[in-house]
Design a protein that fits this description.
kinase; kinase activity; 5-stranded mixed beta sheet; histidine kinase; 3 domains; HisK_dim/P_dom; elongated; 4-stranded antiparallel beta sheet; membrane; 8 helices; about 425 residues; 11 strands; Heat Shock Protein 90
């Protein structure tokens, strides 16, 4: 699993862990060497000394040559009787602890005779404890020094990375006059990272510039022919020589032209994604837009043999972006029309939102989230769309802070609910 710790802290932790491992092995090696000296070298020295005492002192009737901290005992030898505290000492080298006193003992048996050499080890134990204390203090100091040194080195190593991160975070990199970052860094890994960032940022700037030019061209070039179509339809609607079918076709062209104008306005605002663009397209109440869309879609729904109902269950006097609200409601009503063959469609207004209910084919629960993705259509696709209507609804709701949801109705159908309060 990837660590969530900051990189600087991970460097310090790695430095400290490495020191822990090295110092720990070194300290344990010292302790092991001390025990080796104690158990092997001391035992060998005492074995040689005991052999010398036995051969030259006892058997040769010579006076014993022992230092003040060493004593010799021998069973059945007058003047060298074994004390009771050393009676149970086994053959070979061993340590004997008696209260606060500590002794090295080396015992050798020959037939029914036993010889014992005892050496006080208080001084050696004191030096051993001092050595262990020094080793422990050195271990702790090395860890503490590793933490401090690791922090200093990590700060020095990470300084260019931190600087680059602050430059990226605290300035407007998309501004055309923002200077490149790579010249401020040497030709190392951080410099390569800054150069890669400059390259990627340059591509992004060029992409945004093309997008802005495109949206500007769309804003000017598409609106002009749409106005021509709308004005031509107005003239044709009052022409006296049109029959009913021709007049209906002119009205359909006018509605399509109006819808295209709304879509152009919606796409322009979404593409620019700026707060100051949100006021474009006008504003209106929920009831006003609902009445407008009812007049537009009710005839088409009823022409298909379906019922249409506009139900107001709550009064909402707040103002919303006209282009966005009109596009959302229009797409949901069109979707209900395409996927409903019998029954009806209901547009229900509530305080802070609305929902569109239909008695159509419904949406399987495992497909409901996918329906808001681009180019995804239901299993029983209807109409001539490409599967972008619900995706556009989702984008608008995210942009405006609205919430869209869908659920099944019983016995059949779907309900799309828009919460305008988020």
């Amino acid at each position: 699993m990837v660590s969530k710790q900051p990189l600087l802290r991970r460097i310090v932790i790695a430095f400290v862990l490495m020191t822990l491992a090295v110092s720990g092995v070194f300290s344990l090696s010292i302790v092991g060497i001390v025990h080796f000296v104690e158990e092997h070298l001391v035992s060998q020295d005492m074995a040689r000394e005991l052999s010398t005492v036995i051969d030259e002192g006892v058997q040769g009737d010579k006076p014993l040559k022992l230092d003040s901290g060493t004593r010799f005992f021998a069973a059945n030898v007058p003047g060298f009787e074994l004390p009771e505290q050393f009676a149970g000492v086994p053959d070979g080298f061993s340590e004997v602890l008696e209260g606060d006193e500590a002794f090295y003992a080396y015992k050798r048996s020959r037939g029914d005779q036993a010889f014992l050499l005892v050496q006080e080890q208080q001084e050696f134990e004191a030096r051993e404890q001092l050595l262990f204390g020094v080793v422990l203090a050195g271990f702790l100091l090395s860890v503490l020094a590793a933490w401090g040194l690791g922090w200093l080195l990590a700060r020095r190593v990470m300084a260019p990375v931190i600087r680059l991160a602050n430059q990226v975070r605290h300035r407007d990199q998309l501004h055309p006059l923002a200077p490149a970052l790579a010249p401020d860094y040497p030709d190392d890994e951080v410099g390569h990272l800054a150069a890669a960032f400059d390259s990627t940022l340059g591509q992004l700037r060029r992409t945004l510039e093309r997008e802005q030019l495109f949206t500007s061209d769309v804003s000017h070039e598409l609106r002009t022919p749409l106005m021509v179509i709308a004005s031509s339809c107005e003239l044709l609607e009052v022409a006296p020589n049109l029959d009913a079918r021709q007049r209906e076709q002119v009205q359909r062209i006018a509605r399509a032209s109006e819808e295209m104008g709304d879509l152009v306005q919606t796409f322009l605002i979404l593409a620019r994604a700026r707060q100051e663009e949100a006021s474009q397209g006008g504003s209106a109440t929920l009831a006003t837009v609902a009445e407008e869309q009812s007049r537009r879609w009710a005839p088409l729904i009823e022409e298909k043999g379906l019922r249409f109902e506009l139900i107001e269950r709550g009064r909402d006097t707040a103002l919303y972006n006209l282009s966005f609200l009109r596009t959302v409601m229009s797409n949901l009503l069109r979707n209900a029309l395409h996927y409903t063959e019998q029954g009806g469609v209901r547009l229900i207004l509530e305080e802070g939102g609305f929902r569109v209910e239909d008695s159509g084919v419904g949406i399987p629960s495992d497909q409901q989230e996918r329906m808001f993705q681009p180019f995804v259509r239901g299993l029983q696709s209807r109409g001539e769309g490409l599967g972008l209507g619900l995706s556009l609804v989702k984008r608008i709701c995210v942009h405006q802070g609205w919430r869209v949801s869908v659920r099944d109705l019983s016995p059949r159908g779907s309900a799309f609910e828009i919460n305008l309060r988020g």
